[in-house]
Fold:
Amino acid sequence: MAKVFERTKGLTDKPFHYCPGCTHGIIHRLVAEVLEELDVLGKAIGVAPVGCSVFAYDYFNCDMHEAAHGRAPAVATGIKRVHPDSVVFTYQGDGDLASIGTAEIIHAAHRGEKITTIFVNNAIYGMTGGQMAPTTLVGQKATTAPYGRDEKHAGRPLKVAEMLATIHGAKFVERVSVHNPANIRKAKKAIKKAFEVQLAGEGFGIVEVLSTCPTNWGLTPVEALKWLEENMIPYYPLGNFRTPEEVK
Amino acid sequence: MAKILMKGNEAIGAAAIKAGCKYFFGYPITPQNELPEYMSRELPKVGGVFLQAESEVAAINMVYGAAGAGARVMTSSSSPGIALKQEGISYIAGAELPCVIVNIVRGGPGLGGIQPAQSDYYQSTRGGGNGDYRTVVYAPATLQETVDLVMEAFDVADQYRIPVMVVGDGMIGQMMEPVEFKEPKKRNLPPKDWATTGTKGQRKPNIINSLFIDPKELEDHVLRLEEKYKVIKQNEVRYETYNLEDADVVVVAYGTTSRVVKNAIAKCEAEGLRVGLIRPITLWPFPDEAFEKISDKTKGILTVEMSTGQMIDDVKIAINGRKPVYFYGRTGGMVPEPDAIVAEIKKIAGGEK
Amino acid sequence: MEERVIMAGFGGQGVMSMGQLLTYAGMIEGKNVSWLPSYGPEMRGGTANCNVIVSDKPVGSPIVTEATAAIVMNRPSLDKFESFVVKDGNLLINSSLIDKKAERDDINAYYIPANEIAVELGNGKVANMVMLGAYLELTKAVKVESVLEALKKVFGKTKAHLIPLNEKALERGAELIRK
Structure:
């Protein structure tokens, strides 16, 4: 009988600690599969963030480095400059990347740092307990926005992909979602391209992945996927913002 | 090898490159700018990388990444910039990585000034960032000693997997003195088999990490660090002493201040006073043992610093109540003058204090 | 022997390089030396000064508070540093730009029209060398040959043609003292 599914070598045997219905697990798997398919696990060095995916260093089956909150792109820069032939990626959430780490991500892109960033946007601080993120939607409730995000008070949510696409060194920028199988397939394609951009030495690549947080959104996993589709995608349109000719 | 006349900041860079440092991540701040400028000019010539980061915070986290990747790496800054780097220094200490951090100290608090100061003693010797950790701290007094210690700092960092700080001030950074680059004593350095180099499919993944969510695991980790610090205390203490045997007064001073103190001591001797000196070269580990050599006839200890009195805490711990400890200092970028120190010494010698 | 010298003037008068040359020459002769500049915002167009120590013993503090000599190239430098000179010490005043006399009578003051001599030699920039020549003649802190050797190293090949001019400037400064 033909094998139609098997574990990816890109992940360790360690069971994920993520909440039921959280899409981090899917995104981890996509990254791991891409690393395996590109045959770069042996030269991959990942940088884990602070946030829900802080333990990513236990899950990816390659060398890993745990960074301080928001600093993953700086740590990745240090690694990539020492080992220019390695494949370096950061895996960061929206609090990590879009709040405390804005300087680091913008300047990694600005330098055209040859690294790949997987940016998981679930519109909330997950690990610390559902506080408002820069990506929290207007009107969305959070533990530090109990009346819903007020645009006059907290501004409108930050569109990271659009912002980074204005930077010359950011050679690959795409926003994807993982709320259904079709989109998961597209997400994997984008992640693969982002790594190919790095392998081609083109510059910085980022994939923003819209993700769910049933626990802190106060929804069931199925409701959460629907909420993502109906609320996040209209504000955070999916699509490619930049691709270099070589990878198109 | 012939001596070369070099500016302090550049001599530090030259010493680092001679010690095999290939990577430098920094951010401009006075009075240390000649050091990153030197590295930006010289590192590419030896196949290394200089990178000007977007901030001190980013720079130290680049050091964190490069150190984890197994490189000999350095950063430098001055006081407010070093304050920003404390986040990364704490992570580097926690993840047990080697690196060298140079602080060309300026006056504070806040933006402070740019003239010589020693007001970062606490910041340097008490860890500086969060958590139970130490960094080895060298405080050279001359440019020759500066290059010797910078070269040794990389070995010490590698041997113990620990961040090492070299603390100077604007005088060290800006002055010129002849220097000679000498190989430090040979150490047996362990292989960096823990580094993130890519598994090449030949070993289990290496993980650089300072997170231990289980309190027992974290306690074990911290206690292991403490054991390491004990070994460093045994092996790496450095200090200079002068005339402790029959001194009426013993002065304690480090870095450039110790040079002013030496002038003051010479003046006292010309007047027949017997004055000793303890000059810590490592601020951490602090040379407690030097204080055991102080003679019974010594009337008191005078600590001289370019601060309002920070090292004096360690002097009091080391002397443990056996002798009275007095303080004289200037701060904010003012440098103590020999005559003022002489006056303080005389007060102690004459029983006025 | 220990010479502790303060050299001061406007930025651009070459006080820093004058100090470095003396330091370099001292090192060539195997003496203990240090050179300490003022640094910071005042360097950008304002007054500049450096402290040089040339000694048979190891150098203690690189800061000169009791100067065996001061070389002042402009009026603010005279006002600031006259009091730093020790009794019987030397104060060399650039009389081309300073019309004031030394106030103290317990030091040896010398008035050297350094800019005028430099212009006579065809290059106003060597006023510092005239002052240095006078200083060396007075103190014999280092040999003139050592300064010339230091100049060769500092100038390299591209500026080697300037050495005879500098040598002349040093000599004219020395002559003024010999008179």
